[in-house]
Amino acid sequence: MTNLIAVRGQQDQRTQERIVAAADNAEVRFVKDAVELAGLLPSVAAVGGDLSESELALAPQLEWVHSWAAGPQVFPALIEHPAAMTSSKGNGAIPLAEQALLLMIMLNRNALRWLTAQGEHRWDRFTHGELAGHTAVLVGLGNSGIHLAGALTALGMRVIGVRRNTTLPSPGVDRVEGPDRLLDLLPEADFVVVTAPYTTETAGMLGEEHFRAMKPSSYYICVSRGGIADDVALEKALREGWIAGAGLDAHSIEPLPADSPFWDLPNTIVTPHNGATTAETAARGVDIFVENLTRFVRGDALTNLVDKNAGY
């Protein structure tokens, strides 16, 4: 049985030392590029980093693959492959929740108006909103959704969560419903916040009928993955005033094309899928991998397992 561990990506010296220590007697190779990895794949037992379909075909002895990302790349051949898959899901929960909260506050208080006035050196005081007493519908109650729910509850908001398994613990959430109830919940929402992963079930789950069901005063926020809302329907909703505005950190095409209409909509804040780009997020991802590498070489059960059929 092979004991070779290949690790792709950019790791500093301290991180490499932690990985080697966790591997115990297994051999660790830090690969610089796809060519070097391809030469090792016939002998690897585990890979730290996503694999393409062609790379997977070169790894007959693979037992475990770990994605550095929270949202792993899953494809049919990987689903069928017996190797276990883990991911770094949960490592960006804190900053993603903070990004959602940032966008909510900016939209609710019309912060763009202040920024415009600052650029013009103009003193512009106006009456704006506050979050307390309003309702947020969170589409997705994973790590980032639950963290956000706690923050919103502390701010005096009412939180309704939408998740597949309504029986799971959902601290900070006043009410939990299944995805089949989403359309009925939208008229209650002052904010609709998407923290769900992009899967076959969530792709395009918010369309024209959903945005028409929202209040003209409500806002749409997306911090997890683009493509969960239909772009055409969302643009129409923003242009025609079905909803008040949107805060978009995740986009269906990334980088967002320069000719995308979302850049120029006056009621929309665009950020470059940057919400979880923190040093702490990366550090938590390393912690997850090191913990699982320790478990792998000992033959113990892995944590952060990906349901390859579900996609997360």
Description:
The chain is an alpha/beta fold. The protein has two domains: 4-90 and 279-298, Rossmann fold, CATH 3.40.50.720; 93-270, Rossmann fold, CATH 3.40.50.720. 33% of the residues lie in helices and 16% in strands. The protein has eleven helices and twelve strands. The chain has helices spanning 13-23, 34-40, 53-56, 76-80, 93-108, 111-119, 143-154, 182-185, 208-213, 231-240, 279-298; strands at residues 4-8, 27-31, 44-48, 64-66, 84-86, 135-139, 158-162, 175-177, 191-194, 219-222, 245-248, 268-270. The strands form two sheets. The protein has a seven-stranded parallel sheet, with helices on one face. Strands 2-1-3-4-5 form a five-stranded parallel sheet, sandwiched between helices. The radius of gyration is 22 Å and the shape is elongated. 37% of the residues are buried. The model has no long low-confidence stretch (mean pLDDT 97).
